[in-house]
Amino acid sequence: MKQLFLLGLLILAMCCPVFAQDLPSQAEITDLTRKAxxxxxxxxxxxxxxxxxxxxxxxxKFSNAADTAHVIIRNLQQKIFxxxx
Length: 85
Known about the structure:
With 85 residues, the protein is an all-alpha fold. It is built from three helices and no strands.
């Protein structure tokens, strides 16, 4: 939940020109979102491997969190690419 809040702040800051000078470049954000997506994929792989040891309720919760992370990352990437046009 903390990560979602921080990503939301980043998106908000990208929309406000006052904060624009303190933000990383579009290339840096692109690289960071790519790395974040790789981490989420690794988390999903580990989660599937650990499924026999995790209660179904927790497995579903963790899977939903990974899906949400992918959506946030995709939204950030689309926002960056739309600003490049």
